Amino acid sequence: MDGVAALDEPLRKTVGDRTAKVFADALDLHTAGDLLHHYPRRYAERGELTRLSDLPVDEHVTVVARVARAELKRYNQGRGVRLEVLVTDGSGHLTLVFFSRAAHMHHKALVPGRRGMFAGKVTVFNRTRQLAHPEYALLDGEPGEDAAEEFAGRLLPIYPASAKLPTWKIAKAVDTLLDSLQATGWEGVTDPLPPALRDGRGLVALPEALTKVHRPRTKADVADARERLKWDEAFVLQAELARRRLADSALPAVPRPRTAGGLLDAFDARLPFTLTEGQEKVSAEIFADLAREHPMHRLLQGEVGSGKTMVGLRAMLAVVDTGGQAAMLAPTEVLAQQHHRSITAMMGDLAEGGMLGGAERATKVVLLTGSMGAAARRRALLDLATGEAGIVVGTHALIEDVVRFHDLGLVVVDEQHRFGVEQRDALRAKAAQPPHLLVMTATPIPRTVAMTVFGDLETSVLDQLPAGRSPIATHVVPAKDKPHFLARAWDRVREEVEGGHQAYVVCPRIGDEQDEKEQRGGARGRSAAGPGGDGPDGNGPDGDGPDGGEERRPPLAVLETADRLAAGPLAGLRVEVLHGRMQPDAKDDVMRRFSDGEVDVLVATTVIEVGVNVPNATAMVIMDADRFGVSQLHQLRGRVGRGSAPGLCLLVSDMPEGTPARTRLDAVAATLDGFELSRIDLEQRREGDVLGQAQSGARSSLRMLAVMDDEEVIAAARHEAAALVAADPELAAHPELRSALDSLLDARRAEYLDKG
Questions:
Q1: With b meaning 16 or more CB within 10 Å and e meaning fewer, what string describes 744-753?
Q2: pLDDT at residue 746 is higher than 70
Q3: What is the pLDDT, as a whole number, of residue 714?
Q4: Tens digits of per-residue pLDDT, 635-669?
Q5: Residue 80: other Cβ atoms inside 10 A
Q6: What backbone phi and psi angles, to 5 degrees, belong to 398?
Q7: What is the distance in angstroms between the CA of the first residue and the CA of the last residue of the chain?
């Protein structure tokens, strides 16, 4: 190796071109460092039996088990032959199946009593879990063979694997690479942790950590390696974040201090209610940020209905009082229109600047969406460019090139989990100097929770519900196991309507002809709707494969469900539909009639997920609830219980007890705390790429560090990194750390982190 960047060497130099291509295609591993940081998922001990009872369906797994029975069977009137091998680990059984010539070949090796590692994709046939044509390696050989002895006396690493790369092939490549590095004395492998920090914390050196994580002799070896490698990830990330904070503190922004006697004071004087203590406290934090000479970057996390919009509006009015403009970015037209209506209603003549009857200190509040008519759009664009409009509420249309601001001072993003970083950044780029940013959400996405834990995001929390808001009871309805529970759910909806209230029924997809085509052409069970559209959150782990056991039916659709309900359990009630492909006027008409009480039951997609405010709606039934993400379920649930009557949310699912999907639903039913649900979501999904764009966790930049489990390590690393960067901002005395940062932060990730 070249002695400078040993871990940057292409993997093909270790494993050859063909195998390197498989590593790249299957696991996105390209260099020696990528492979060494592909850590074992767990370790098997000789004599340890892996639990077969918990195998996830539709996932590639590796199991350690013993052959209990092996039988050759004929099928297709005797013309075909298959080998069925039953393996067990004491907790459960699994069937291995081989067909045709492979059946005879494997029958000789897989005799009862033999023990091995078996890898493949778990499927279900005749309600029995099986691996078809699995790859395997026997761990206890025939007399005279020494296959098992290779593993004697040490832990056996089990790696995250794929169909083309079972764990033992990965282990073999790792062994080859370790042998090569050890032969050169680890020449060219630099250690990113400063020696003083390493010694002070009692951490092992990097070569020792990498050896112990891949070739542990004892569990203590694994613990030493994990502690050291967690510090690598935490410290390098915190060093980069510390450098960013230092740079941010030098960024100029126009201070927007609260001004006495302006719009904000006039607005507060008219409020027909008293702000909660939480709203007052959070507003004070925001006003303090706005008065500073560098940009505010604050997350406002508040329970659904806690009054986030009121806090956001007061911040916008404070900016308008300084001569600036404020923009509120909403994910859907339904929400943007609702925000515009509620803001203008709350402000009254204060929102009629330049109009007949407008108040003396008034400004203009405009709406900008993609479906607006040309004349209204031109007027809105002119009002923004001239500064006539102090506040604009809009959708992605605000990001378009034609939109110009006179003096954009504040961007408020509502429901940040519905926007990408690039979209938020495009709006912020419309200001001459970086504007202040306030992000509002009820359930932060995992990356946001992670950044909060890392200390890179100032957070305000609204945990009080305003007076008059009611609690929401949430229950899981196991429709497949207990169909009478579903019948009772429809009875409850009818009871709410007969009591003078209204209800929502939410379905994962629309059900029209175009939707059917997308269902056939796209991923099974997911909607292909775009931002602010319909269908389950594509970020979630909640598709339909792994949890279900058997091949799943298509997700339920709005149009069919509405027809079935109107003709069946909800016959006689006024049932209407709402979805993202309806014309804007039609959507507005349905929502207006629902708000006015002219519709009893609204059967809708997730287009109602955020911002829809109908206090008389008290019940919600979410069909195929397991197909939605945790954040979406929490947002949807927040549409009920918005008045004085208690809310009821029923999560209908076919998923059996004990599956990951059912566990998620039980978690949602157990708490109304959005941050707690986000932490649960984070534990299941991981944090996504903290430095990149992947929200699902599939390609996380954190391989060893778990944000929720390692908060203490992250906090300690932040303290150490902040001190080091303050003393040496350019890291001139720490070239190894600078090299690690260059490796971690490719151009795309560095740009993304700057925007984030």
A1: bbeeebeebb
A2: no
A3: 84
A4: 889 888 888 889 999 999 998 887 888 888 998 99
A5: 12
A6: -65, -20
A7: 37
Going by C-alpha positions, the residue among 437, 452, 417 that lies closest to residue 610 is: 417
Binned at pLDDT 50, 70 and 90, residue 682 comes out as low
pLDDT of residue 547: 39
Distance, in Å, from the CA atom of 548 to the CA atom of 550, rounded to the nearest integer, reads: 6
* Confidence (pLDDT) at 169: 87
Short-list 64, 18, 26, CA closest to 157: 64
Angle at 357 between CA 354 and CA 363, to 5 degrees: 35
Give the 3-state secondary structure percentages of the chain, helix then strand then coil, rounded to 5. 40, 20, 40
CA gap 170, 427 in Å, rounded: 45
In this predicted model, what pLDDT tens digit does every residue of 566-600 receive, in sequence order? Answer: 999 999 999 999 998 888 888 889 989 999 999 99
Longest dimension (CA), the chain: 99
CA–CA–CA angle 601, 603, 608 (5° rounding): 105
Please give the C-alpha separations between residue 279 and each of 135, 239, 302, 342, 464, in angstroms, as whole numbers.
Answer: 59, 34, 10, 18, 8
Q: How many residues make up the chain in this entry? A: 756
> Taking a C-beta distance cutoff of 8 angstroms, is the pair 44, 50 a contact?
yes
Residue 57: name the closest of 753, 661, 571 by CA. Answer: 661
* 57 touches 548 (CB < 8 A): yes
Instruction: Give the list of residues 6+ apart from residue 292 with CB closer than 8 angstroms, or none.
Output: 253, 255
Please state, in angstroms and rounded to a whole number, the distance separating the CA atoms of residues 576 and 590.
Answer: 7
> Residue 533: what pLDDT?
40
750 or 401: which carries more pLDDT confidence?
Answer: 401
pLDDT(144) > 70: no
DSSP annotation of 45 reads: P
The long-range contacts involving 730-734, CB below 8 angstroms and separated by at least 24 positions, are 731/239, 734/194
The candidate with the shortest Cα–Cα distance to 256, out of 328, 340, 301, 320, is 320
Residue burial 679-700, b: 16+ Cβ < 10 Å; e: rest: bbbbebbbbbbbbbebbebeeb
Question: Global pTM?
Answer: 0.60
Q: How far apart, in Å, are the Cα atoms of 199 and each of 202, 423, 715? A: 5, 44, 18
- Of 248-252, 253-257, 475-479, 544-548, the poorest mean pLDDT is in 544-548
* Cα–Cα distances in angstroms (integers) from residue 63 to residues 115, 164, 445, 656, in the given order: 11, 16, 33, 23
Give the rounded distance of the alpha carbon of 83 from its chain centre.
42
Question: In this structure, are residues 555 and 544 in contact, taking their beta carbons and an 8 Å threshold?
Answer: yes
Residue 452 is predicted with a pLDDT of: 62
The more confidently predicted of residues 128 and 194 is 194
Distance (Å, rounded) from C-alpha 299 to C-alpha 276? 19
Q: At what angle do helices 446-453 and 674-685 cross, to 10 degrees?
A: 100
**Could you tell me the sign of the dihedral formed by the alpha carbons of 499, 502, 506, 509, in that order?**
positive
**How much is the average pLDDT of 364-375?**
92
Q: DSSP for 50-77?
A: --STTPPTTSEEEEEEEEEEEEEEEETT
Between residues 14 and 102, which one has the greater pLDDT? Answer: 14
The predicted structure's pLDDT at residue 585: 85
Distance CA 700, CA 693 (A): 9
Q: How many H helices and E strands in the chain?
A: 25, 21
Integer Cα distance of 261 and 32 in angstroms: 64
pLDDT at 530 over 50: no
Say if strands 617-622 and 458-462 run parallel, antiparallel, or are unpaired.
unpaired
